[in-house]
């Protein structure tokens, strides 16, 4: 594998609207991000990814962009963005922005010109398609529910929107459109951006015949995903983007990719892949219901663990994955992946241990480092997310009661990850001095940065210890390039793996065991180390502060016993 500048980095996702408000309007802003750069540096962060801060009507929280060259006034000014770039450089940090180019906003100048002349130049920037028998061109359902086609006023045409109707899909078959996008990407990279997180990129390739498929629901529609899965040739677009933009700047790119074909991993993230890396969503997609949130199944620990292990093994020798516990499109990992008995500080530290030390680039989502959780709401009107409102109605149509539908939203809503950052226990959680744009999680008085900064045994303190260990001179090579080898897969409730690195030049070998007990009972693991080597076993980190105890146990018995919710990192 060719070594890249980003291989040993740790990334942090900021959802700007919910990070820190400095001007009292209840919305986070760039000034707030700048003020917390030292906090992020101390946490061990190298790369900051900003969810969209472009000008937008915010129908889909900024993923509907009306001007790719402007900063939304809610977040600040371009001068403040330039200041953010400068301040991150001073700290040896990098900034990524969200690249949203499958679609734009219906307020974008291109789309407004297309509506004004539905048969002209700008209509070709979108998918304006003639209806069939006075109806939509095909039976696609958008990601947010309902038809993916919307009538073009005054014509027999429809435009395609795989997301909200206010997010018309761009026509990547049009070379003029592609050149406009490439010009925009290079403009941002010239400003000093380190790269992009690339949104919903697999969707840019369309079958221009737009065939209908067998319906998959009572509405007579089929998920637009079906067309994406059937079409070929999206890799040609990805290579064109890379050649025209990213490659020129040695930019870091992390792709949001679903529906990738089984044999395409090397093409996507290999040494010469389309992107630097892509998120591992394998565990998250397991939880998706076939019909919607209302029939999402509960995941067993073994299935969750084995799915992550499988993704790690598939990527090994091919490329780097980006590993996540949660993000702005997912509920909080502490509420989702931890069994009920482990939804405490020890469990949150355990989850962090098994995730951050996997092979790949760890992405920490804001608030994850203090163990923020899902937020229960009393009424659907208290939610903001467009997808949550759609899924709530789907649940009611499927026969769920309002109480059941709200519980489904509590477990799955994207708003769980979007509640404001909990900086302290005072009014407004230190996020704002006025009413926040989205109601705070009431547990901010117990779970917040200020409280945890004062406590050496807090979740936040443990995250700092984890990132320091991952980046330490002695173990950095192993945690970056070391082989991933699953361990103790026959043990119920045990999530364990080795990271093994060998230096071919001086025959040095390092074997680090990461082991955690997600079960309710203690579990003993035989280390298999010869007697002569046991005294060399070193406990690098323990989420319960038992480093010395585990070292002594390993040396005397050749085993370690993990209590429920205990995690340990051993160099053996």
How does this model look, in words?
The protein is an alpha/beta fold and 572 residues long. It contains 20 helices and 22 strands. The strands form 6 sheets. The protein has an 8-stranded parallel β-barrel with strand order 1-2-5-10-12-13-14-15. Strands 16-17-18-22-20 form a 5-stranded antiparallel β-sheet. The chain has a 3-stranded antiparallel β-sheet with strand order 6-9-8, with no helix packed on it. A hairpin with a 6-residue loop joins strand 16 and strand 17 (494-503). Helix 14 runs antiparallel to helix 15. The model has no long low-confidence stretch (mean pLDDT 96).
Structural class assignment: alpha/beta
Taken as a percent bin, the fraction of beta residues is 15-25%
Mass-distribution shape: globular
Averaged pLDDT, please? 96
What share of residues is helical? 25-40%
The total count of helices amounts to 20
Distance, first to last CA: 26 Å
Beta-strand segment tally: 22
What Rg do the Cα atoms give?
24 Å
**Sheet with the most strands, sense and barrel status:** 8 strands, parallel, barrel
Widest β-sheet, arrangement of strands = 1-2-5-10-12-13-14-15
Which stretches of 5+ consecutive residues score pLDDT under 50?
none
Give a brief rundown of this model:
This protein has 572 residues and is an alpha/beta fold. The protein has 20 helices and 22 strands. Helix 13 packs parallel to helix 17 (459-471) and helix 14 (386-397) runs antiparallel to helix 15.
